[in-house]
Description:
Elements: H1 2-27, H2 33-58, E1 79-82, H3 95-105, H4 114-122, E2 127-128, E3 135-137, E4 146-147, H5 149-165, E5 175-180, H6 185-194, E6 211-219, H7 225-240, E7 244-248, E8 253-257
Parallel strand pairs: 3-5
Antiparallel strand pairs: 1-6, 2-4, 5-6, 6-8, 7-8
Helix pairs in contact: 1-2, 5-7
Amino acid sequence: MKIILLTFCLLAIIGFALSVFLVTWSFAKKISWIKAALFIFSYGVLCMGILLFMIDRRKPNLMKRIPIVRSIKKSESKRNCDCTWSSLTLEKEDYTAHKTSAKRITNGMYITNEASRMKWIGRRKLVPVDEADGFGISNLDYSSAHLTPLAKKRLYELGQRFRASIQNPDEKKSYFMVSSITRSQVQQTQICERYPNACTRDHSPHSYGVAFDIYKVTSSGRNCTIGMSALQEVLTQMQREGKILLCPESKCIHVTVCG
């Protein structure tokens, strides 16, 4: 934003100088008033074009979503399995550790509202997340598809390792779905008002841009047992490698990136 402001000031100074110069020439009869006005108008249009181009280049695309070909066609039958604390056997880490890790690896970067989210996106501290190999993203009502660069890397790695760990060719099309990604404190408060018994009221890892929730596995096979087993295996591996923290919940598996 500072670059855009400096560019605006520079163009304004040049425009003022050009206007004074052309008006002086017009009084001196060296150029007609019509030509002077056309020069000034053309310069103004050029400046507007430059500034709009710079703003558009820096504007974060909150709605950017590139659907992946998840390999399962609409005509094929699908099997869905919920990912919860009862469907997957995972080691649960204390949620305080999730908060501490989130604050540490982001140097305290916290998303309080939409303005602060836009600020961190503008500084490239938050980057867009698109559906990729091994996972999809559901409709995000209370969060946006952004993560820190490290968290994005971990999510993509999780998807790739999940897909690679499935050996059965009939199950290779399986993928897991992410239901929540980055939330502002305002969005977190809205969730707490709607679901008072199932939310973190203060400093959720989601508000640091380093957390996401996995809520189901989808398979085109007879069932999603293989996909669920693969997800459990990969989550456990990355947890033991110190790359993620896990908190199995009643409706999803909460993942906080660490390391």
